[in-house]
Amino acid sequence: MGLKRVKPNEKGVIVRRGRVAGMLKPGLGLFLGKLIRVDVRPRILDIVSQKLPSVDGTDMDFRYEVTYTIKNPEVAALVKVHLPDEMERYITEDPFKNIEILPTIIGYTCHYTLRTRVSAMRRADCLKKEEMAPVLKEGLEKVFKDTGIIFDEIVVTDAYPTNKGVEEGVAAITYQVVHPDGSTSILPIGEVDVHPAGLRR
């Protein structure tokens, strides 16, 4: 039996034997098992996806902000999303790991969505950044349908020909979480293969 306090901006997910066994509301609560504290405030991911090849042979870079909220932590802890084969390994049976890895899954989903769409577009159309936000939102909502995660806003802040310093065929994805209080959490830089074979870390 445990006794822990859940903050006003959090919800507590009780996990017992690897399964979600209930929820704790804000305040001091007793529970049996382990507790995941989930921040239910909107979060912002600032993401850069690089070297996405367009149909006319230009590699494009995009920078965008994704604001999302975990509306239903109980569902999000055991999220089952429809990912490309190479990304399925990120989703586990461990609720703690799934909550922790969520920003990475969102980042890779955005990158995969953009890569698929950009490969059928010309450079001039890729530069119309305001038209890329609905593409990202559609891709995210398709993958995260019925997962308890809501995408509040997506803004593409920049679109430009790629940085030639990036190794050919490899895209660098960088992102940081900007919390409502203004603090940030820097997440590790990842690299994925952008060749047609699929995404690989």
CATH class of the largest domain: Alpha Beta
Q: Could you tell me how far the N terminus lies from the C terminus, measured between alpha carbons in angstroms? A: 39 Å
Distinct helical segment count: 4
CATH structural architecture of the largest domain: 2-Layer Sandwich
Key attributes of the depicted protein:
alpha+beta; Tetrahydropterin Synthase, Chain A; 2 domains; 21% helix
Write a brief structural summary.
By secondary structure, the chain is of the alpha+beta class. 21% of the residues lie in helices and 40% in strands.
Please, could you describe this protein's structure?
The structure is a single chain. With 201 residues, this protein is an alpha+beta fold. It folds into two domains: 2-38, no CATH class; 41-193, 2-Layer Sandwich (Tetrahydropterin Synthase, Chain A). It is 21% helix and 40% strand. The protein contains four helices and eleven strands. The protein has helices spanning 73-76, 95-118, 123-126, 133-143; strands at 2-6, 10-16, 19-24, 27-31, 34-39, 43-53, 59-70, 149-161, 170-178, 184-186, 190-193. The strands form three sheets. Strands 6, 7, 8, 9, 10 and 11 form a six-stranded antiparallel β-sheet that branches. A hairpin with a 2-residue loop joins β2 (10-16) and β3. α2 crosses α4. The chain is elongated and about 60 Å long. The N and C termini lie far apart (39 Å). Residues 165-173 and 188-201 have low confidence and may be disordered.
